[in-house]
Amino acid sequence: MKARSGVRSRRWRRRFLFFCVAWLSTMLPGCALIHHNGKPYAEIAPEQINLASDIHLARDGWPDARWWTRYHDAQLDALIDQALANAPTMVIARTRVAQAKSDVELAAAGSSLQVAALASLDRTHVSANGFLGPFAKNEPEAGLTGPWYTEGIVGLGASYDIDLWGKQRAQIAASLGVSNARLAETSAVELEISTDVAQLYYGIQTTYQLIDLLNESHAIAMFAVQAHEARAARGVESRTPLEEARAQQLAVERQIVSAQGQIKQLRESMRALVGAGPNGLPAIEPVSLPRSQAALPATLSYELLARRPDLQAMRWYVQASFSRIDAAKAAFYPSFDIKAFFGFDALHLADLFTHASQQINLIPGLYLPIFDGGRLNANLSGAREGSNLLIEQYNQAVLDAVRDVAQAGSRLQALDTETGLQTQRIESVAFERDSVEASYRRGLTSQLAALEAHQPVIAAQAELLTLNAQTLSQEIALTKALGGGYRADPPVELKPR
């Protein structure tokens, strides 16, 4: 008997399996069909990620991590470290990373086995005219104690989605892509903050040096006013030279006041950037501007993509969009799940935890989209177009990055030439100053003429200071355009699908 029973059981399983396969084969053609998949846009060609052959600097290479330490300025190091730790934009970036990680965990949790404890208590008055009418009677001999019942249910419920087509895996991959993009964006924010702090810091230092030059010019202007006042008082000359000298003195004083105001504005910009309170920004002592250390790689190509955190973030967003397309495609196919319950169910609480009240449910489920009013195709089309939009934005961002490098590099080339010419001009003007001073020492000219000969040199030195500040600013801009020492690991590959 047992052998016959086993044979019948195996036959029944084969028939059930055959029925399931046949039923699926019949139903699958009835699924909603993909009509609006579209085509992925192309990624930018490698030959477009390069510089013109006439753009080059004396040094080759990429920036180092913590690139600002090459200037050997403890004040700058402390300011950038403070900004990277406390700047509000850094706090926002880190919060966005934490939020993205939570989204990944949420997506991963949805694809796991779900188990929950269930318990309910239902006090019910049964209708004598309803479906459960016989239970409204009060006949204890027949097990009927109506019309009031207190039903209790307690147990464990479980559910599990079977990810046959990879929809849930694609959703997790999309969340991971966004999380990786947020991490790269954090590096981009760090680069933005560090370069902005450096630009503000050297703007302050440049203004300090400009004030020193203006003070020299002001001292000469004051001497000129005093000299012309004495001559006018003796009737040696008219008041016209005196008023001209006084106008020059006032002009220099105005420039000093403007420069001092500029320092205050730069400090307040620095305070806001660093996230410091009224007394949280340390005093910035004057230091000399560092010598230029700009370097430019001989070639850019795809290495620029791995060096720029903003480009890496966009690549991850594009990668996440491909996973969303996969999830949108998988939504066209049947989805399977299994639900189960094990516990106790009784109409009388006194019987709840008895063996007879045990209940077991095993419910395989199927969801098959057939007619959806075009919702799935619209979702797929939106995912594809959103991905193509990201690809085009990424391509434009790459071109903009190459442009930024080219502009900073070519500007540094021009500034290097201008600085050389201005240095020669200072030498020529200084020769004229030295000649006048030599004449003064021999008694051939006045002290006023000797001092006024310094003014063209001071003006030329101010112009050279401006050129040096512009060179340093462009060097920092080039560092930012080259990614500031960022290095993606591992590289992200774009695989449209």
Protein architecture, described:
This protein is an alpha+beta fold and 497 residues long. The protein has 10 helices and 6 strands, in the order αααββββααααββααα. Helix 4 (167-234) packs antiparallel against helix 7, helix 4 packs antiparallel against helix 10 and helix 7 runs antiparallel to helix 8. It is elongated, with a radius of gyration of 40 Å. 26% of the residues are buried. It is found in: Cell membrane; Membrane. It is a lipid-anchor. Belongs to the outer membrane factor (OMF) (TC 1.B.17) family. Pfam families: OEP.
Series of secondary-structure elements, N-terminal to C-terminal: HHHEEEEHHHHEEHHH
Radius of gyration: 40 Å
Number of domains: 1
Main sheet, how many strands, which sense, barrel? Answer: 4 strands, antiparallel
Strand content: 5-15%
> Architecture, according to CATH?
Up-down Bundle
Keywords: Lipoprotein, Membrane, Palmitate, Signal, Transmembrane, Transmembrane beta strand
Family: Belongs to the outer membrane factor (OMF) (TC 1.B.17) family.
Protein name: Outer membrane protein, multidrug efflux system
Main location: membrane
Pick out its properties.
497 residues; Outer membrane efflux proteins (OEP); 10 helices; two-stranded antiparallel sheet; 59% helix; MdtP/NodT-like; 6 strands; 4-stranded antiparallel β-sheet; lipoprotein; alpha+beta; disordered N terminus; membrane; elongated
Put the structure in a nutshell.
The protein is built from 10 helices and 6 strands, in the order H-H-H-E-E-E-E-H-H-H-H-E-E-H-H-H. It is an alpha+beta fold and 497 residues long.
